[in-house]
Amino acid sequence: MTGEVVLDVLVGIFLVAGGLLSLVAGIGLVRFPDVLSRMHAATKPQVLGVLLILLALAVSLRNGADLATLVLIGGFQLTTAPLAAQMIGRAAYRTGRVHRESLNVDELADRDSTGSGPAD
User: Would you say the pTM of this structure is higher than 0.85?
Assistant: First the structure.
């Protein structure tokens, strides 16, 4: 096996793994019962799936400008997905769409409705 064949096999493995993780994320969005579970499915496997696909592209392209672009895409994905999930979870909690009995620890229970501090 030559180096090119090995790299092509790695690209294929990364693409299939990334696609499967993205598929699992999509299935989780449809199948999970509540907002917090869906939020988990939308961020964890989806981000890893995108990063694996970007890694496959990086191995395949091997060009400096393309690699810089892929690193930027991966960085934005790693920063925006958790922040969006945090905002979605916070909005769901504030609007009462979270089943509070399913929470192990409710750190926001002692805050008022605006989330600005402890309720007096």
Answer: no
User: How far does CA 27 lie from the centroid of its chain?
Assistant: 14
Q: Quick check: is 118 in a domain?
A: no
CA 15 to chain centre: 17
92 within some domain: yes
- Judged by phi (left if over 0) then psi (alpha if -120 to 50, else beta), residue 62 lies in left
pLDDT tens-digit series, residues 51-66: 999 999 999 998 999 9
DSSP letter for each residue of 12-75: HHHHHHHHHHHHHHHHHHHH-SSHHHHHHHHHHHHHHHHHHHHHHHHHHH--HHHHHHHHHHHH
Count: domains in the chain: 1
Structure tokens at 41: 């499915």
Question: In this structure, are residues 22 and 46 in contact, taking their beta carbons and an 8 Å threshold?
Answer: yes
- 79-100 pLDDT per residue, tens: 999 899 989 989 998 898 888 8
Residue 10 vs residues 48, 50, 57: alpha-carbon distances, Å: 16, 16, 11
